[in-house]
Request: fold
Amino acid sequence: MQIQTQIARKHSPTLLFVLGTMACTAVTQAQDIRLASTDASRGSPPPPVETKNAKDTTEERWNLHAQTTYVYQHKDGFSAPYTGPQSLSTSPEYSYTSTFTAYLGARFWKGGEIYVDPEVVIGKPFSHLFGLASINNGEIQKNGGTHPRGYLARWFLRQTFNLGGDAVHVEDGPNQLASNYDSRRFVVTLGKITLTDIFEKNTYANDPRTQFLNWSMITHGAWDYAADARAYTIGGAGEFYWDNWVVRVGRFMEPKEANGTTLNHRIWTYHGDNLEVEHDHTFGDLPGLVRVLVFRNHSWAGNYLDAIAAAEGTGNPPDVTSVRKASSKVGYGISFEQRLSKDVGVFLRASSANDRTEEYAFTEIDNDLSGGISVNGTRWNRPDDVFGVAFSTAGLNRQHRLYLADGGMGGFLGDGQLTRYGREDVLETYYNYHLYKGIQLSPDFQVILNPGYNADRRGPVFIYGMRIHLEI
Reply:
């Protein structure tokens, strides 16, 4: 009751927005629009539910889905010997986000699907979004605010060219018309998306609206994937499916400035290139897969060592934004997931990048290892519920550490010094409780050690959260 009173007093406009979107959801549900789950970061479509040699051959001409998600988090205070201009505050804080997304899809010709996703978001981060690389809420945006902002999150064309093999039926869902494909096919996507719509679509850790919340859990931490401040970008990708193998390649726009809101449309000069190879397998009758991702970004970015050299003898801390030039960043990620039984699955990720250049579009993680377990509630007679627990350990490369030690400021970090480096470790657990069809309530708990990689400000930081998610 005390928490509810505090929420209502501190940000009643947020509650009004959430209640309004819930009301819209209830009205739409009453109109018999089909329920569907959303399974990917920032409301992207779920991994297709494929049925080979399926008897169901229904193909939709159009569909409509929607979701709204509200996340409230409270951070306990913690002790630290000093605090810099971009440190995580040592005082207790609250944070919240609220999003509403509509998913509109239509088929205009054979194999051609067009999707448009209008979205509204509001939010308030911890400490003005400073002090953490493993940021606590995947729904928070870099340019968010406490007033509702509407925009077109996605608009894209998906064209499928069937090449034979087994017949595959893909079920209806957000950004997915019920369709019939071949197990051997080539798929082209052109338009505005977020890259986690296509690449590294992990079954157990990909969607902050229904799964883990922390940024280090929803994709490869070191993957500085091309995106604007809202996590969306424009470009094209091709996916080649051949039975149990998939090869994905794509080129997308970088922002004009690091973490900026405007994309650089000179895609042949500045871009993010991605290549992913996936292999699906079974152990017995239990599915699993392995993905290997390689990326190369070319952007107008600063070099940490150049910034340190430019600041020598000036008495000022280094500034990576003052030494920007055409720069490249290369990295990779390896992902493994496996179902251990009908109701238990595990995942493991590892990623690294040559972050001599500044973090540009995601977060300040140069290398990362994460993994976890997801348990379906069948064993306790709650088959629609999910319990998850995961860990992440993130680190910085030598050049990045030197820059922060000299007092440099990054996109998210800057304690004024970094005399005792430590890896930023995160433990997160959640329980997704299905109250009713399409309505989910999820308590979430996170423990973070060495926020901002600073062992002098070790913490631990305790974060308690509650998430409400509605979908149709």
